[in-house]
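Anyone able to model this chain together with beta-D-galactopyranuronic acid?
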Amino acid sequence: MLPFTKRAAATALALLLAAGTAGAQTVLRSSDTHPDGYPTVEAVKYFGELVKERTEGRYTVEVYHSAQLGQEADTIEQVRTGVIDLNRTSLGPWNGLIPATTVPSLPYIFRSVEHARTVMNGPIGDEILAAFEPHGVVGLAFYDGGARSFYNTKKPIAAAADLEGMKFRVMQSDIFVDMVAALGASATPMPYGEVYSGLETGVIDGAENNFPSYDTAKHAEVAKYYALDEHLIVPEVLVMSKLSFDRLSPEDQAVVRQAAKDSVARQWELWDAQVAKSRAAVEASGSTITTPDKAAFIAAMEPVYAKHVTDPALKALVERIRAVE
Ligand code: GTR
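re: yes, here you go
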């Protein structure tokens, strides 16, 4: 028998040789703020399976869910500087950096979730994905983030006017601050991970999100009044660090792009199921869901458009999105 050290060295050598024949393996690290099992987390895992399969195992994807790598705004910096390879976020936090992302983040820009899916997965979506590239990231695909509505700890909302004077948490983007102000309420931008305690301690009266986030982040435990005003349909986006992307061969780059696109249908399917499940869960746990008339909400958004859509290219983008059937 070989002495221990020699045996260990022999094993290490054998492993190295095996790795040499099998080819090098690279694990791509991806961030997500949501818990394991959430539709975006599962869609990125599926994307990873496709990448693994199509690169014969040379590349795999590890999803760090539950904000293990930090809150969304911080992970955006990490992916730009190549600290992480991939990131799945809302489009909202990109608004300050990439003007084209502001248009799909405007209140009531989309007529419905279906309209958003069609636009973001067609030529207009591809144009917006391409706008990421000068900022250190490659836009890969858009996922569905459903419709966001206001919820609060204080009272049922029967009409837009009922929001006046209340304080709502929003994502970190000026559009959302102005959107809340236009309704006579005040906005506090804050990371997603701080919303639960903000609601519980009364630092904020409410927040706004889709049913899956309202449910899985447990905001429904503390904010029982959900008003189905559907003011935002902000797409989710999957991006890759340009530094990581540029290390891939052209063939592997094509694989990554295609795998991301191929994961979209899976995300939609998971998303639809999660919306139904989360809505049922919050109803069962005692949330009151009201359906205020949207007309007053839509009319109130005029100053938001006036302030944020001044550039001719963005104005044209608004019109082109509206024209999509
Ligand atoms: C969710 C979205 C997250 C995050 C969160 C938020 O709907 O999926 O990426 O942006 O909203 O409100 O911060």
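Residues 1-5, 10-21 have pLDDT under 50 and may be disordered.
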